[in-house]
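Retro notes
What went well: the complex prediction finally ran end to end.
Inputs used:
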Amino acid sequence: MNRFRIKGLIIAAVVLLLAVGAGLFAAWHKGADRKAPDVQTKSDDRGNADAEQSPEGAPDKTPGPISISDASKDQNLRQAVTKQIITSKLVGEYGATIRHPRIQLQAIQMLINELKQIYPDTWRDHLQEFLLAAFPDLADELYARFLKLEEYQQWVATEYKTLLNMPARERNQYLMEKRKQFFGEEAALIWAKELQAQQVADALEELNQLKQAPFEDKLKYYQSRLEDIYADQTEAYTKKNPQKVMDQFLSSESVQEDLANMSEEQRRQSLNNFRRSVGLDDTALQRWSELDAARDERWRAGQAYMRQREQIVTEFQGDQQAEKLDALRKELFGAEAATIKDEEQAGFFRFNTKRIYGQN
Amino acid sequence: MRKGTAFWILVFLMVLCTASVAFGRAAKTTYPVVFAHGMLGFDELVGIDYFGNDYGVFVGDPCDEPLEISCNPRIDRGQQAFATAVNPLQSSENRGLALADQVESYMATVGASAVNMVGHSQGGIDARKAAKILAERKGRQVVKVLISISSPHRGSPLAKSILDQGDEAINKLLNILANAVLTPIMFGDKGDIVASMKSLMYDDYDADDGEVTGMKAFNLKYGMDNRYVGHYASVITADQENMNPILQALTALGGGGIDGDGWCGPENEDCDHDGAAGAGNGNFDDVDDDGLVGINSQQMGYRLSFKTSTFLGGSLTVDSSTGYVADINRPDKTQSTSHSSVVKADHLDVLGLGVIPYLKPDPFDEFTFYGAVFDYVAHNEGCRR
């Protein structure tokens, strides 16, 4: 069990003990008050620590009739417990990273969502109070960021039609300029993932332009661009997303042209080196070697099928043609034969599509 | 409630909570969860993760590094997940095969013997085909749990309407999509928007073209089958307010709203010829669709109910009131008309795409929702049906 899990469990245990204590107190208090019920009224569930809502937003049924004084005390207690739970949840999920501006926005959004469940109409009135309880040192900064976020969202809401009609690249640049106006240089941190993804897209376009470069040079270029983009996080990013890192590179048309022009053995070696450079170990490389071989076999069978299929369609008609095609598919594709037949009935011929080495 | 009862309820809650670690963090799935996107889909090349939050953080990224900031705190720190990317504008025959190939690749890379799949919109349909192909290739069931979200299992009226209008509407649709999301990723294969639309309406669009397309035929070929998938479930969405502008534009292009909460007898054909199975109830303005898909098209297997709780976070549970859709072409009347457990969200709210920064922000909490999805998967990997 790592230290994060231990920390999470400790936080959970503390809050749960608080909740248990508060619940026992409430139960005892309620039990005492119910001995002498007076005016009956309907309790509302605002402040309920476990206020489940239906998707339509209708609150669940509340407990039976209790007294006004009882309801008031109970509500106060529930609100206190709820506040404790929400603030602990905020601290537990975001406390360690709350100084990052994007995390601040995520924490604020999470708090707003929680508050809207409890105080649907007055959630704004409680925002500062909860921020102060969760992050006393940063409450003012967080509230100021919330106001900026509101301003930004308001701007987006009024401008979205204009933005929607702009070409994507122009729009992205315009948006980042505007975001900088609202959030300053921190905009680059808040929307870092978006910027990184855009840079990867740019790198892949650049890769496509390197048509004359050999496969190994393209790989070096791709890896150096990833290092530019992810900096000291490159290794962690690659380790966490090996499939994505591989798929992106192999999606490049110029890379595929190189692979298509190689001999089978050269291609096997190039793909093996590429995968090893992404961090795959010998066991994974062995699995890939088997998969590559199976795919090569499928495509060989597919090409043979398309040739023989054409011949059968030319030479036979009706039921005889169907029988011959069924037999051919069964012979070449085994368990997938029926699916391939189904695809053809829908007008899809899988072996007329492009082979993408390392992907299909 | 008396003291003793309250005490034991609280103890029960405590046990329940600690089982999922702190504050509703999802249980870890045994097998990785693979995400499959819809027609408006891509991975993250345009900057916004399809299955992400408002800032492009993938919902399946666990917080497994010290002080990590780009991760979902609602999932287990050891969770494995992967978002696939197939051509956005292709038929599900084409996309389902590409999806199977990608899952096969991912399994080789990480050494998984099986996966779970979560598909949004057309992705939920593609996943059924992918599951069948994977089972055929491996000679055993590979997909343990398949959850579809907002998927048009019985067709979408928009597809038929656009095909009926011809080239002008198709070009307008391409423009809407290109401006909104697709331009930066259309490097190579431009796709086939006509094949895509034909595959997303219920009936075969053209009986004379030598091809049998549409969801009705697709469902017969790639229906629900425990040889391919262990457990099927679906999340149903509908909303009428604050619709995403892309959806507003698509709705206008399609000629108006969708009447998506009717049924048409046990055979449930497309009686009103709108492109989706069943019929409407005559009211186009009620909350019976999510901007692209009617609620009568979305249930596959179990219908799931999404609830949020301050204490426990989000949860998905089976809504037993509508029963199980076993024959995907023949849901019963309740399954076609019930508004029970319909999540109030438009077709794009459940995605990072729903809050593309240049569009109207939505308050949907993707981390919590997908945390609940992971948790549901973890608890149903061993279940059949």
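What we learned: Residues 22-380 of chain B form a domain with the Rossmann fold fold (CATH 3.40.50).
What to try next: split runs per interface for comparison.
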